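seq:
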Amino acid sequence: MTTLEFIVNYKLIEDQVLSYEETDYTYLPHVFFDGNSEILTQGESNCTYQFCVPYYYHARGAQDLMNYSGMAVANNIENLSMSKWIIKKEAIPQEPDYIEAITDPQRANTIVVNAYSENNPDKPIPDPISVVQHAPLPPDVGATFNGSVGLIQAILGSMASNPSNDQNYISGKAIVESLSADNAAAMPFVSGYLTGLTQMANIHVDLMPKYIVGKRTIPIVQKNGEKIYQDVNIDGKPSLNYEERAIKVNVEAGVNFQVQKNQALQQIIGLMQASPGFAEFMNSQDGLKILVKNLTVYGADELQEAIPKWIQQQEQQKQQAMQMQQQAMQQDPRMIKAQADVQKVKLEEHELQMKEQQAEFDQQVKMAELALEQEKVQNEAILVQHEAQQEEVNAAVQREKAQAEIISHSLDAAAKIASINHQKRMDEHESVRKSVELHHKISNEKDKDDSQ
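struct:
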């Protein structure tokens, strides 16, 4: 059994249902962008609740410290004495003008006091007037107040909420990296924002095959920020035909190509100012194409298309100017004479080169003939040496042959002598054998006769 799930849109009033509508949503369309929250347990029970951590939560202690030090500074200012002078009673003059200068210090006037006692002119008054010395604020209070600002900044991070190009934040990815480098206090908010965008993207992608049906042309934005129109649901083109929850989208901080182009253009301009050679290259036809590709002004695409045409026109104008200059030079009698002189000089140079080449060829032929003669002499010497060696070999062969015949005759003679000696021994043996047989025969006959 298949269970189908629907997200239903109810319209209610008190306890009555006014309408019931099944929507096409696969995900709940209300997305909560969580900044930084924690799930806490209330007491010892299993009841939990979500606590949204404020951005300033971790800097509360540093802020309290800054407030306390600030109040100490304000209290010291509030308790400052307005009196500026300490004047001894005997030193106060009795004249009204002098008294007014003391009581009204805002007016520009000279303060006059008595240096000697009026009752006893011979008696001087020691230190009749002195400046009021205010008790200074302890330096730790001011240092704590000023240090609290840096402490709070270190806790929360120093990244601006609206980064500009001057801060080198060239993309969303760079912003995330700068947050990680400054402090992790703002990272949960960035992660929550990206998570919320991911959920919204999944909702939109899941609804696309339900509403974009058949042949359509939809606007899209490429990675480089360029907006184009893309055909869908056509052979050879992307097809928006997939099941629910088949595609998952993950939103991450990407690269801002437009800002990168601006920075690349600023770098190119800086290099052109620093290097005249580089400026000359960028003002050439090849460098102009690179420079135009890094522009982000309105109509930059049309400008890129117009540059090749302009370069082609410049080339044609240069060619026409050169042709006109050549025609004008050809019609000038002085130029004709100069050309004739140049041709004459070229012809003389050609004849001189031919002579040099012929002399070089003759020299090479002579060297070749000399090399052949040397080779012939060497071959004859080798032939004579070979014949002498051949004669020595033949003589050695004859000697070997004669020695072999002598050895052969000696062997034949030895064989004949051995044969004669063998035959002699055989004859002797045969004679002995016959003698034995005769003796044996005679003995047998004698025995027969004795037996009879």
